[in-house]
User: Which sequence fits this backbone?
């Protein structure tokens, strides 16, 4: 049944696509290894990984990422749960709100944040700590479309009402229902939403740059301005990190669906 | 007693209405508070600011910044880059998606393309600029490779016809920016258009063949009209992603190409327009362009859904 006759144009365009993917990738890899004249070495990677500023900014962005994931799960999980259980009529409104970050360009959003919170009476940009609060809020907003969608899809695949009623009839309160019934059933959705959220924070430039915090994005711009080979090494590292996050999401969501307690 | 108090929560029917309504909204209050503080407040601030003078009185003055030649130029460069990249990326992406669906490319190629599309569509910002500098910059991989291709020329002097920087190419220009943007745009096209191509029914092709239509007839009169809303919708998506991009352009050209996003960035840093409120008007102009895009996208989406459902 399967026809093995290949179509010339099919192969041609597939090869063009593959070349567009791989030439810059290969070029970057090759370039990043050329730091020492005459031979290939990991010198550029060594310099990056031993740079205290890199470690510091990576740590900062990673911590920001974790806090963002935590806050955004805490905000969106109860919301999505509540919408499915009590307020299905509000869903269209919330869906429109959650895709707003796709409509408003990030630079415009950050502009709004700065002009709103850096002025009296709030003046939140005066201290590192309050600026970090703004950073996290901004990251939560920027990753909102991904997080909301992941949780919404996950919530659709379980029977929220039955699970809730079962838990209630066994005497659980709302907190117990969320922690012991809903979260375990949604762990795959939560995990994949969290990974995208984390990847967004790690790769984000604009918030860290304009709020002047030591995040990974501004560090990369700095390196790109001053150095030749290290940026290529950074690009490869960041490509690898994105790959890792997406690979984990795929691995998690493939293994996961059959393990869910209830499915429709 | 605990149970007795909780039980009505389940049925929800015979409760006193106002109280019931209020309780229904409890769960979404944190969400709306967050949205009001960090989305609604900043947005309205920008919007109101666009119509205020420095003393806070209402004015239409700021909007005139959109007629400022400097600003007009930046809008036109941004539009130009976005249109070119969304067309080029869209067409390339369409053909690659065609290759992995109808084009019957080998399975391993399809798998790699789908995986890398997901990856490349998420790979933007600063690292993408670095990758292109390492590949096509002055000492980049391809640049140096092409330089080494030389032929013995007249009078014993070698000619090296592929020195791209000698022949006018420059990565840190609009051309370079366009090539770089396409790297994340065409995978986005592959991801959004593949489901539509998979939705083309074999019966339609067979019907066209039975009525004596050639491959060209099939594409021109059957497949493309069906696919057109999806293609245009996906291209609008590409357009919007290029129009709003900032980090790649900033890292690649150091802000020497005046895109609208770069201009807004400079306005945030140091008020280059000499009037903060004109910055708000600039931002408003961008949001309007984006809103038109999304409106167009949702209209086209509705038309697409008609075909893909049946």
Assistant:
């Amino acid at each position: 049944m399967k026809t093995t006759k290949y179509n010339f144009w099919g192969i041609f365009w597939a090869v063009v696509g593959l070349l567009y993917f791989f030439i810059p990738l290969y070029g970057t890899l090759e370039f990043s290894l050329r730091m020492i004249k005459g031979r290939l070495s990991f010198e550029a990677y060594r310099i990056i990984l031993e740079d205290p500023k890199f470690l510091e900014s990576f740590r900062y962005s990673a911590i920001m990422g974790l806090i963002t994931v935590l806050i955004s799960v805490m905000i969106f999980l109860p919301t999505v749960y509540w919408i499915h259980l009590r307020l299905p009529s509000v869903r269209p409104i919330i869906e429109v709100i959650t895709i707003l970050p796709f409509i408003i360009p990030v630079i415009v959003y950050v502009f709004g944040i700065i002009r709103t919170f850096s002025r009296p009476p709030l003046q939140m940009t005066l201290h590192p700590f309050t600026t970090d609060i703004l950073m996290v809020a901004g990251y939560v907003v920027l990753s909102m479309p991904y997080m909301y969608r992941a949780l919404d899809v996950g919530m659709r695949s379980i029977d929220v009402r039955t699970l809730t009623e079962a838990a209630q009839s066994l005497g659980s309160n709302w907190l117990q229902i969320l922690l012991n019934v809903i979260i375990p059933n949604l762990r795959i959705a939560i995990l994949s939403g969290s990974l995208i959220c984390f990847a967004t924070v790690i790769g984000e430039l604009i918030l860290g740059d304009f709020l002047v915090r030591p995040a990974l994005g501004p560090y990369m711009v700095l390196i790109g301005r001053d150095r030749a080979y290290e940026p290529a090494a950074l690009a490869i590292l960041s490509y690898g990190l994105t790959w890792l996050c997406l690979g984990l999401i795929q691995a998690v969501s493939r293994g996961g669906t059959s393990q869910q307690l209830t499915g429709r | 007693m605990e149970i007795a108090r909780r039980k009505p929560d389940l049925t929800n029917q015979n409760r006193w209405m106002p109280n019931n309504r209020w309780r229904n909204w409890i769960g979404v209050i944190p969400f709306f508070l967050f949205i009001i503080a960090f989305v609604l407040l900043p947005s309205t601030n920008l919007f109101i600011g666009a119509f205020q003078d420095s003393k806070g009185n209402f004015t239409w003055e700021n909007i005139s910044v959109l007629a400022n030649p400097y600003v007009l130029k930046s809008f036109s460069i941004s539009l130009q880059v976005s249109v070119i990249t969304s067309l080029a990326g869209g067409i390339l992406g369409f053909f690659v998606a065609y290759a992995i669906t109808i084009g019957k490319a080998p399975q391993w190629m399809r798998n790699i393309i789908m995986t890398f599309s997901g990856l490349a569509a998420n790979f933007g910002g600063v690292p993408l600029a670095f990758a292109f500098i390492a590949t096509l910059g002055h000492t980049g991989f391809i640049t140096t490779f092409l330089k080494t291709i030389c032929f013995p020329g007249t009078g014993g002097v070698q000619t090296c016809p592929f020195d791209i920087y000698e022949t006018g190419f420059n990565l840190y220009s609009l051309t370079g920016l366009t090539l770089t943007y396409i790297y994340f745009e065409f995978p986005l096209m592959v991801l959004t258009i593949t489901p539509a191509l998979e939705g083309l029914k074999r019966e339609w092709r067979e019907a066209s063949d039975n009525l004596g239509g050639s491959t060209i007839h099939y594409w021109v009169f059957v497949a493309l009209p069906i696919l057109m809303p999806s293609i245009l919708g996906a291209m609008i998506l590409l357009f919007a992603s290029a129009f709003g991009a900032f980090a790649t352009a900033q890292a690649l050209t150091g802000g020497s190409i005046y895109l609208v996003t770069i201009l807004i960035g400079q306005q945030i840093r140091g008020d280059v327009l000499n009037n903060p409120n004109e910055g708000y008007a600039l931002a408003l102009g961008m949001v309007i362009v984006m809103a038109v895009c999304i409106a167009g996208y949702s209209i086209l989406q509705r038309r697409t859904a008609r075909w893909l459902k049946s």
In short: Chain A is about 75% helix and 0% strand. The CA atoms of residues 44 and 230 of chain A lie 5 Å apart. The first helix of chain A runs from residue 8 to 32. Chain A touches chain B through 83 residues (CB under 8 Å).
